[in-house]
Amino acid sequence: MISRQFALLGFELAAPGERADAYIINSCTVTAAADSKSRQRIRQAKALNPDALVAVIGCYPQAAREEVARMEEVDLVLGSADKEGVADQVGKLLRRARNDKRDCAQNEGGELVSAESGGANEAGGSPRERTRAWLKACDGCDRFCSYCVIPSARGAVRSAAPAQIAREARGLIAAGYKEIVVTGINLALYGTDLKGARALSAAGAGKPADGIFALLSRLCSLDGEYRIRLGSLEPTVIDASAAARIAGLSRVCPHFHLSLQSGSDRVLQKMKRRYTAEGYAEILAALRGLDPHFAVTTDVIAGFPGETDEDFSDSLSFVRAAGFAKVHVFRYSKRKGTAAADMPGHLPNAVKAERAAALAKAAEEGAAAFREGCNGTLRRTLLFGPDKGGRFVRGITDNGIDVRVPAGAFENPAAAENTFCDLELTREIIGGFS
Ligand code: SF4
Asked: CA 36, CA 117: separation in Å to the nearest integer?
């Protein structure tokens, strides 16, 4: 985790949106929208403190170094770095850059493995950050979905050794973190690159996602009071039985992110997604069989090249019926070097925008229905503690719902920080979705 390593190097961590001497933008380049978001964050950082050093790392500069370096707000560009020494390396560069602010550092050949954007694991952060830690298990992907730049930007899957991850998890639990969010570009591929990957399997070789199942089984068996939430799983790898097997692990939260991308089999095939809408629906059914309020979040692309009205209608119907807790809707954007960029049938922006808006509306209705369905249920909740004004105690349920409980419900709201409780959800305390 970059933030924790920075803290070890003596940096004091600022909360998101706070004025700071340096900002690290850990970027993603999965879509043009992600690039745009990174550029927005870069500008926001500089606006917060025009004298601050702004460093951009991650796969956006790896894929488009020149474009990032050209931004006048950017002081430091790091496309890649050595995994083991990333904090040390970035720290040195930051210190050096303080003396030579326009130095654009180049660091080829390594790999940057770190906390995902949005996560910080330091004791100096907000209460939310002191209760949840992000643990990256793997990076890269070799699925080559036809619209995606990740395989060329970040390379094939690279997994950290199970013993190393377990060691890191033990350290986080000992430091008091109650929720460990295990992340990776394509977590379902975890372990497929490790020597003897099959030996990782705790339940028979050859089944989809054996590696991640074995890793999670190991993480679930550690001592302490904690739970595990997963980052993104890919239905390009896992099927219904693999998803159910993972979801059945004792400490794993009933909250998966499974990218749908399209509800049309024809489009899924053109996307090279390796599953059908029916296969995806089977995963949903298996998860809901374990817990009717199992939260599934997803991504959907509107306006993939050649997407017909009928294809779009299939996606819309799927989103309406699926009961997703949250949907990230993306308008298709052409990414240089991907197979989809050269496909015929690119749609006008207006059509993509119209379809994205319809999907977003359906997604919001579905999300509201999901939250409403949880009204009256009892959920294991991790409390972050009182918010800034002290009026509410905030927290997150096992199935990912943000809650805000009136502080008056607690004898000592401050003592609630970083504790678990079984919370009956009501409309008043149900907030958004993480
Ligand atoms: S599974 Fe497909 S969309 Fe996901 S990272 Fe890999 S190539 Fe990209």
From this structure: 15
Residue 129, pLDDT > 90, answer: no
CATH number at residue 308: 3.30.750.200
Pocket test for ligand 1, best of 145, 261, 270 (most atoms within 8 A of CB): 145
Give the CA dihedral 196, 198, 202, 204, nearest 10 degrees. Answer: -150
* Ligand 1 geometric centre to CA of 145 (Å): 5
Q: What range defines the domain where residue 241 resides? A: 126-253
Pocket test for ligand 1, best of 28, 141, 144 (most atoms within 8 A of CB): 141
**Is there an atom of ligand 1 within 6 Å of 325 CB?**
no
Closest CA to 5 of 20, 18, 21, 24: 24
Pocket of ligand 1 contains residue 139 by CB under 6 Å: no
Edge-to-edge strand ranges of the sheet holding 419-424: 419-424, 378-386, 392-397, 401-406, 430-433
Tell which residue, 397, 392, 402, has the closest CA to residue 421: 397
131 falls within a domain = yes
Listing DSSP states for 333-357 in one string gives ---TTSGGGG-S-PPPHHHHHHHHH
Whether 115 is in a domain gets the answer no
| pLDDT attached to residue 218 | 96
| Residues 148 and 182 occupy one common structural domain | yes
**409, part of any domain:** yes
Whole-number percent of the chain with pLDDT over 90: 60
CA distances 8 to 4, 87, 175, Å, are 6, 9, 14
Which ligand 1 atom minimizes the distance to the CA of 148?
A: 8
Using a 6 Å cutoff on CB, does residue 151 contact ligand 1?
Answer: yes
The residue among 197, 103, 132, 37 whose CA lies nearest residue 418 is: 132
Residues 168 and 215 in one domain: yes
Query: 388: which 2 tokens?
Result: 């800034």
Model confidence band, residue 88 (pLDDT cutoffs 50, 70, 90): low
Which residue do the tokens 């970083």 mark?
A: 418
Q: How far apart are CA 260 and CA 275, in angstroms?
A: 9
